[in-house]
Amino acid sequence: MSSLRDFSIPEAYNQIRSMDTLVGLEPIVDWNALGSMVSSLFKNNTEKGGRPNFDEITMIRTLFIQELYGLSDEATERELYDRISFRHFLHYPDKMPDARTIWLFRERLSSSGMDKKLWEAIWKQFNDRGIRIEKGVIQDASYIESDHGKHGRRKPPVPVDPEPPQMTKNEETGESPGKGDAADPDQKKKMTKAQKKAAKIKASEKKRLSKEERRSSKTRRSKDGTFTKKDNRTHFGYKLHSSVGVDMPLIREFVVTTAALHDANVDLSVPDMPCYRDKGYQGAPCRGLNGTMDHASRNNPLSIDQVRRNLRISRKRSPGERPYSIIKGKFNGDHVYVTMVRRVRVKAMFKCFCYNLFTLMNLKKRGKIAAAM
């Protein structure tokens, strides 16, 4: 088996090397430095001991592959054994991580906040190579859909009418009403109103699901996701806010929130740098030079100067839509199955990481950053 792994599989990989995207992405960052950062997450090297963990570099590369190709944990485990290019990217380990190991490693990153440190370490490597954002940023946001889990909700108790319905004459005497003994119309009207009220209470209780109940549920329902509506379309889940460089089209910062949080509540501008934003950010604070588009209001149309200013800002901020187009279209990042903001944050970090490496690889091919890389 050793000879098969050490010779036959690498030899077969050489036949598809020219078609492998991972070949161009791997040398852009120092993976060993990233692996040494997350080694502190494991405590099995103490006196208490414990089961040996997978190599940290292998796990980071695994999460990178997962988000690059938009795979679930189970699909990632299957593809690691099936695809030669994945094995080559992981440097042919003796054993591949299974779905549970992948989930637990992502959970360690999210609960400890190590994903934020990884992101800063990645950008430190970029800065050391001369890759910087100096001419301003573009801020925008996009929805990440999630499963709101309609089934499996806890049923509320059936409300009891405060007053029982009054009995008719025939009910008091125990006689059955005849054809001419119709029920009292006022009583019938009261019963109808009570039934409507009970149905309304039941419907409102069914729609309202507290945060504590969501967190204690054992379903795949999102625990932090919220509903919002935009352009007559309902969204449920989360929102990815990002700032992209004007001169270097890379994602510099990102924040993950629930879908209901308005874009104006997140400020990703950089002091002393222009920040170009759309009309939805009007009136929002800005740490940098405010490049927010003006928004017309009722009985207050935009002036000619404001319209021209909006056109100039629109040309500047249009490249800010590209990251979401690639993340959703190429990396399948428009939907998540994890159930908390911190877990979505880790997946979003690796999506942004994939986008940055993918962009740098294309810039290198066109000769725009050859000296830096």
From TrEMBL:
Residues 190-200 have a biased composition (Basic residues). Keywords: DNA recombination, DNA-binding. Signal peptide: none annotated. Residues 144-232 are annotated as: Disordered. InterPro entries: Transpos_IS5 (IPR047959), Transposase_11 (IPR002559), Transposase_InsH_N (IPR008490). Involved in the transposition of the insertion sequence IS5. Residues 13-108 form the Transposase InsH N-terminal domain. This is IS5 family transposase.
